[in-house]
Amino acid sequence: MGRTIQDVIDRIISAVPGAPQEDSVDTLKSGDPQQEVTGIVTTFTATMGVLRRAVELNANLIITHEPTFYDHHDCTDWLQNDSVYQAKRDFIARHNLALWRFHDYWHMYQPDGIITGMVKALGWEAYRQPEPSALLIIPGMTVAQVVATVKERLALPTLRVVGSPEQSCERIALLMGAWGKEKQFQAFIDWKVDAVICGETVEWATCEYVRDAIALGENKSLVIVGHAKSEEEGMHYLVEWLQPQLPNIPLTYLAVGDPVTTL
Ligand SMILES: [Zn+2]
């Protein structure tokens, strides 16, 4: 008998200080926790593409950062009559896929596993500050250089930016995902950053604050990466972190990229 899905989940949780927590969303969303693990897939979110690829890989445990059914708690009462939900749910059941969410605990890990993955992908490990661990100080950088690095390292053809290419950009907050405007303002006001690199922004608040700051002669900028692209390298890094602990289980990271395209 090999390892069960529950064994793998328990092993990960035991590495996280303060976990488990009663109100966490990091729970098993489908599948039998006592079945033997045949393979593991890690991903930002369990898209239909990820589910199909997991079946091809014979991986029956999918570790996903985000929900599967478009709700923070994967509540599906409101979706019962929806064809998209029904087809996705049936696919998961038909293939006995176990879906476990690894969101809160990966952010609680010391230091935050999602930010670590992003910092590694960007090649900026040397600039990360111990506290707050989302703060980087990179001497001599400009907005143009930051944007060029992010585009190149994350293979993004374009980035949305509030700011000018020649602005200096030395104190940078990496606010991956959708932290909300309070955290973005905290970075500008309390951490005194020149730039916030975010996943999602709040256009009417953060974008307009930065526009006003620039008009008043202040050195502030905002770089918008998109939620998926801002966090998925953290789930890529999870393979590097987890594989040595599970040497006999095939582990595969599946990138999903940004769901939004430009036409
Ligand atoms: Zn996240």
Summarize the structure.
With 263 residues, the chain is α/β, with parallel strands linked by helices. It is 36% helix and 14% strand.
CATH topology of the largest domain: Udp-n-acetylmuramoylalanyl-d-glutamate--2,6- Diaminopimelate Ligase, Chain: A, domain 1
Strand content: 5-15%
| Spatial shape | globular
Q: Report the end-to-end length measured between terminal Cα atoms.
A: 51 Å
What structural class results from the helix and strand content? alpha/beta
SSE string, helices as H and strands as E: HEEHEHEHHEHEEHEHEHE
Going by CATH, the homologous superfamily of the largest domain would be NIF3 (NGG1p interacting factor 3)-like
List the bound ligands: zinc ion
Unreliable sequence segments: none
- Enumerate how many helices there are, as a single number: 9
Label the CATH architecture of the largest domain: 3-Layer(aba) Sandwich
Q: Helix fraction?
A: 25-40%
The tally of domains stands at: 2
The main β sheet shows up as: 5 strands, mixed
Oligomeric grouping of the chains: single chain
Strand segment count: 10
Largest beta sheet: what is the strand line-up? 1-4-3-2-10
